[in-house]
Design a protein that fits this description.
single chain, seven-stranded mixed β-sheet, two-stranded antiparallel sheet, about 25% strand, Rossmann fold, 7 helices, alpha/beta, binds S-adenosylmethionine
């Protein structure tokens, strides 16, 4: 397969929309309801942050709104993490599976909304990550509630990457006011020069 169908990043092959197997999946699926139709750029800033501040090897990690599962793939490869990716969009599963198969990664995928996660579900994980998941105003309060539940369930590290959309800043304000959190600006040069934000709780 030609390299022009991949972005190479941190030893991972990230599928581009032009990849023939991606095109094949797209042709047989109806439209996407919540933007799970490509890899979004904030996930590269999240990986960049995780390179500087790695999770401990073999951690249990939950990725919410995982899309094609790129950040989780990085953690399974580099930190031997056990990662569960959840996404509300059923169409994501085929891309997620393709992306992981091509990279010889094993991650569990669950088709569900993050709102459905119980304290018991959350208590299995040490880390909760997400990239570009706070893109509608309606997502801010449920995400804040999830973050509170995750902390109460014992998750010690929560990272939400974002390009800086207004709902994300609202979420960041809530976390700063009520929890011990900070927003870090992350400038990356690869695979594209860009600047994103990481909410660290
Ligand atoms: C902008 S995409 C980002 C995907 C991926 N994190 C990335 O960086 O490439 C947002 C993702 O969040 C998912 N999503 C939206 N609302 C959700 C919810 N309530 N629970 C779980 N996933 C959700 C969408 O289906 C989509 O895959």
């Amino acid at each position: 397969m030609s390299d022009s169908h991949y972005i190479q990043y941190q030893g991972l092959k990230i599928l581009k929309s032009s990849h023939p197997q991606v095109q094949k999946i797209k042709r047989k699926q109806p439209g996407h309801s919540a933007h799970g139709n490509k890899v979004w750029r904030s996930c590269f800033a999240l990986i960049d942050y995780l390179i500087t501040y790695p999770v401990e090897p073999k951690s249990n990690v939950l990725e919410i709104g995982c899309g094609w599962g790129v950040a989780g793939m990085y953690l399974t490869k580099k930190q031997q993490a056990t990662v569960t990716g959840i996404d509300i969009d059923p169409n994501v599963r085929d891309y997620f599976n393709l992306q992981n198969t091509i990279n010889h990664c094993t991650q569990e995928f669950q088709e569900r909304g993050f709102e459905s996660l119980s304290s018991d579900d959350l208590s299995h994980y040490q880390h909760l990550i997400g990239s570009d998941i706070c893109f509608w105003d309606e997502l801010t309060n449920p995400l804040f509630q999830l973050i509170c539940d995750a902390r109460n369930a014992g998750i010690k590290n929560i990272l939400i990457a974002d390009p800086g959309r207004p709902p994300f800043w609202h979420l960041a304000d809530l976390c700063t006011e009520q929890l011990n959190s900070e927003v870090i600006t992350r400038r990356i040069l690869e695979p594209w020069k860009s600047e994103k934000y990481i909410l660290v709780i």
